[in-house]
Amino acid sequence: MALRRKLGGNAVYSKRLNGVHAPHRKNTAGDKPQRIPTPAVVTIPMSMHIGAPAKPVVAVGDEVKVGQLIAEAGGFVSSPIYSGVSGKVKKIDDMLMSGGAFVPTIVIETDGKQTMLDGITPPKVTNLQEFIEAVRNSGVVGLGGAGFPTAVKLSVKDLSAIEAVIINGAECEPYITSDTRTMIDDADLVWEGIELIKKHLQVHRVIIGIEDNKPQCIGNFRKMCIAGDGVEVKVLPALYPQGAEKVLIYNTLGRVVPEGKLPIDVGAIVINCTTLAAVAKYIKTGMPLVEKCVTVDGSAVKSPKNVIAPIGTPIKDVFEFCGGFKSEPQKVLYGGPMMGVAVPDLDVPILKSTNAVLAFNKKDAALPKETPCIKCGRCFAHCPINLSPADIETAFRLKKPEDLEELKVNLCMECGCCSYVCPANRPLVQVHKLSKVMLRDYQSAQKAADEMLKAKQAQKEEKK
Amino acid sequence: MSNMTVSVSPHIKDNASTTSIMRDVLIALAPALIASGLIFGVRALVVVAVCVSFAVGGEWVFEKIVKKPNTIRDLSAVVTGVLLAYNLPAGIPLWQAAFGSLVAIIVVKQLFGGIGANFANPAITARIVMLLAFSSTMTTWVTPNGLSVAMAAMSSATKVLQGATDAITGATPLIILKGESAAALPSIQNMLLGIRGGCLGETSAIALVIGGIYLLIRRVISWHTPVAFIGTVFLFTLLVGGNLEHSVYQVLSGGLLIGAIFMATDYSTTPNTDWGRIIFGVGCGLITVLIRVWGNYPEGVSFSILLMNILAPYISKLTRKKPFGGVSV
């Protein structure tokens, strides 16, 4: 019998969240990342994070060095950008991003010397304010894929609200092993990050959540934990989407983040392990986030590897370093196969939040044929947050936003479990994305109508 | 411009498809097919063949006429044909079996929109139509005799068989249970093997349960409906009859097992939540017993499933799971 608990107000849940047993395919887990040769050109978009785009502070023709600031944060929710190469700014141009927006982009022609910027020294961090400032200056954003500026996440008004910080080492997407490598190669940096967080955010409980398919990472951190230091390793079953923020909070702390609330509202902050390592690296060495460890894999790649590449490296250079393709790549992704974004060509750059680039051959890229829904209920049974994907699809096709509101499509995190299990190959995730837009439009129209009504009533009252 | 494919995530999928699910159902139905051949002879297999051909052919022709994409490859019409045949007496005139198959596929399935869109189970509804249209042939039960040749070689089994052929004279156990026939009930052993009067695919409890276990292992069906359905019939008849043996006979008789395992678990006509499936099964069980004990018909499985089919969308909606973290408006 499912253990039921009352949390987050009126919500009652069965204990175990659903998910799918996606294939692991962590082929590169044992592969120490190799640095690729400096690319000839890097293309750095100003929007590699959620929030306002960064503002370029260099001009065409300027010489830049490794670690040099090339764009400053464009607002509170934003992040500065540093160059990972030395060379000359070739142009500053707009580029079409996968989100559909044109974004200013700095193109740097490298000189191959990788000259370091003079005066890179560790920042002075003695108190919370300096710590947050350092995190902001590090250029670090959520490296698990979300790209939310880490400094904003850590800017908590009331420190006593933080009951636990969860280090996300779940890495539940198939193929990707860059977090795994961080936890193996840079475990010390992650640990330093944990110490920094404990010290400056006055956190007494840190939970490192790792899926059980990464025994080496679990072992590493278990060895580091000393009884009474408040840090614990939580071994999680390898069930996708274990690393999704709300899922991770539930599976480590047993708390439900209610609709419209943030993790901090239930006393939690979730930080990806690689993000934390990057913060720690900046505070230790003064070198901001300028390069990324990226897993290169997929059926079209000749020799899958983990590589370290400067941010802005065209992905074709990365694939080239991995021996090129053994067959024509028909689909290429940023990120994992469950939530990754398909890219239109191989010129797109490695971004801050890119943790993998995968290339698939024709066979794997073939789009499955859509057949009628047979109402098998698999999407209902596998949705980690108990949505009703098939019903949402019906409501969307019938253009019933009021039903979408009731079905809570706004909660969908687009993890892809429903589409993954659908025997009829329905485009459920796609429909959910479109449904969210339909619902938002409906709700704003509703709100406008309400306000209009109120204004009219107020007018009437006045006339009386 | 590169010609790479750009599509919305996810970019991988598990192996299940509508066709693979239907194939699993057919595999699960295979033991009962073998049993029906052994029990009722070649004639049973002929009925199955006729039903399957007319179901598949009917779907193909209909979709051709209305210019819909062809769906016979998904094997769902084959499943409907087999299930309808299993619910017919082995001696049914073949033209009636063909007629029933066309009703199932064209009227019940295709006119409501084809696979996934029908609200009533095609095989069950067609069987009920046939029961009303061809009352006499639909209730003329063939004495199991197909086994005599096959089992003559096995001396121990032959005894079982001879006992069976002597005991059954065309009446089904349910008719006997209801006191409308003076014939003696078949032994429990024969009930399990299926050596009794009845529709051609419903008699062998062992074969049906093997199929059900296969479907459970393959996760094609969940345990909820079959357990709720069979459990309700067992407990309710126990409550009414107060006799354990009587209840066991009730469970093994008629179309309960095939109905609970294969028909009440049909996707598009039953609820798609776990609790919904339990409610559906309990509802089917209650209606079945009500008809069996107090109704005019000796058997109520088909009617119960059809009635519950109508409620299924409402049950689904009422038992919808609460979204994780959702705040009620």
List the helices and strands and how they pair.
The complex is a heterodimer of chains A (464) and B (329).
Chain A: E1 4-7, E2 11-14, E3 34-35, E4 41-45, E5 55-56, E6 63-64, E7 69-72, E8 81-82, E9 87-96, E10 102-110, H1 128-137, H2 150-154, E11 164-169, H3 178-185, H4 187-200, E12 206-211, H5 215-224, E13 231-236, H6 245-253, E14 268-272, H7 273-285, E15 291-297, E16 305-310, H8 315-321, E17 331-334, E18 341-343, E19 356-360, H9 362-365, H10 378-382, H11 389-397, H12 401-407, H13 417-421, H14 428-463
Parallel strand pairs in A: 3-16, 11-12, 11-14, 12-13, 15-19
Antiparallel strand pairs in A: 1-2, 4-10, 5-7, 6-9, 7-8, 9-10, 15-16, 17-18, 17-19
Helix pairs in contact in A: 4-7, 11-12, 11-14, 12-14
Chain B: H1 18-40, H2 42-65, H3 76-86, H4 94-109, H5 122-133, H6 135-138, H7 147-152, H8 155-167, H9 173-177, H10 188-193, H11 205-217, H12 224-241, H13 244-252, H14 256-263, H15 274-294, H16 301-318
Helix pairs in contact in B: 1-2, 1-3, 1-11, 2-3, 2-4, 3-4, 3-5, 4-5, 5-16, 11-14, 12-13, 12-14, 12-15, 15-16
Write structural notes for this entry:
The complex is a heterodimer of chains A (about 475) and B (about 325). By secondary structure, chain A is of the alpha/beta class. Chain A has helices spanning about 130-135, 150-155, 180-185, 185-200, 215-225, 245-255, 275-285, 315-320, 360-365, 380, 390-395, 400-405, 415-420, 430-464; strands at about 5, 10-15, 35, 40-45, 55, 65, 70, 80, 85-95, 100-110, 165-170, 205-210, 230-235, 270, 290-295, 305-310, 330-335, 340-345, 355-360. Chain A is built from 14 helices and 19 strands. In chain A, the strands form five sheets. Chain A has a six-stranded mixed beta sheet with strand order 3-16-15-19-17-18, sandwiched between helices. The termini of chain A are far apart. Chain B is built from 16 helices and no strands. The N and C termini of chain B lie far apart (about 45 Å). Residues about 150-170 of chain B have low confidence and may be disordered. Chains A and B meet through strand 2, strand 17, strand 18, helix 10 and helix 12 of A and helix 1 of B.
